Amino acid sequence: MKVGIIGATGKAGSLIMKEAMVRGHDVTAIVRNAQKLERPDVKVLEKEIFNLTAEDLKQFDVVVNAFGVPVEKAEQHVDAGKFLIEALKGAPNTRMIVVGGAGSLFVDEAKTTRFYETPEFPETFKAIALNQSQNLADLEASKGIQWTFLSPAAFFDPEGMRTGYYQSGEDGFIVNSKGESYISYRDYAIALVDEIEDPKHKNKRFTVVSEGE
Predict the structure, then answer these.
(1) Phi and psi angles of residue 204, each rounded to the nearest 5 degrees, phi first
(2) What CATH number does the domain containing 115 carry?
(3) What's residue 27's pLDDT?
(4) For the chain, how many structural domains are there in total?
(5) Residue 43 in contact with residue 34, Cβ under 8 Å?
(6) How far is CA 78 from CA 8, 69, 71, 112, 137, in A?
(7) What is the pLDDT of residues 17-61, one digit of tens each?
(8) Helical ranges in the chain per DSSP H
(9) Which domain holds residue 84?
């Protein structure tokens, strides 16, 4: 499949790119600065996210939005999300999978309280969580596009192992057999590429956890 990865130089984006390439997909890194790419063998579309057009996106079966911003620019998650929603209306055959956050997951069965609203959620990341939650709400309200929003576990471990195993849920906060909300970036990448290959969450959010080490 033809896969475009926005933010392919970031921690999550680079591992998603690697996983997709290992599985034989035709991958294009969509990046602001191609010099930051660690893989010279990948195709490149060097563009700011806000300069992407429907024509740019039409060439892909799936676009992964792994766009990352620092906390002080958290609102760009919403801005970029809205921009891509509009662009994808002109590329209706292209699916988008968003690298989301855990903060918007519900912690109760009634779906009244999100993880970022609990005392356990780190204040440092609240702005990111609020804006990613709004991005999800904008996707849920959208018409005429194909999307999936993949929330990681609360502990999203950049250094964790690639175990190849994970379990999934939907809108609710889930834990592994140890009672931990954990997934490594590498296992998250596996789950995301699995969704590229076998879409089971069209126009939905889902979440994943793994056992860790």
Answers:
(1) -140, 165
(2) 3.40.50.720
(3) 98
(4) 1
(5) no
(6) 19, 11, 13, 22, 10
(7) 999 999 999 999 999 988 888 878 899 999 999 999 999 999 999
(8) 11-22, 54-58, 76-88, 126-141, 185-197
(9) 2-209
pLDDT digit string (tens) for 83-118?
A: 999 999 999 999 999 999 999 999 999 999 999 999
**Dihedral sign from CA coordinates of 108, 120, 192, 134:** positive
Give me the helices (H) in 68-125, please.
76-88
Tokens of 66: 């792994």
The β-bridge partners of 184 are 157
Residue 63: the pLDDT is 99
Question: What phi and psi values does residue 90 have, to the nearest 5 degrees?
Answer: -90, 0
- Residue pair 6/30 in contact (Cβ under 8 Å)? The answer is yes
DSSP structural state of residue 96:
E
Question: Which structure tokens are listed for 96?
Answer: 């988008």
Instruction: Give the SS3 label for residue 5.
Output: strand
CB 67 within 8 A of CB 42: no
